[in-house]
Amino acid sequence: MVREDFGQLPIVIEFPDVFLEELPGIPPNRDVEHSIDVALGTALISSTSYRMAPIELKELKAKLQEL
């Protein structure tokens, strides 16, 4: 999306007080820097967030294929 088109979005038109024309600047530096230390040689855990019954999963996959 081009920046000029941003102002034409229905959500921006409906709530103009939320979307500023110009940003006030970059966010300030924070005192806390968040990070996660990972041990050398470890792999990231990959798992599903929500388990589904096989029938539900089959239905979801079918709906996604339609899109």
UniProtKB/TrEMBL annotation:
The protein's name: Polyprotein
Species the sequence originates in: Gossypium australe
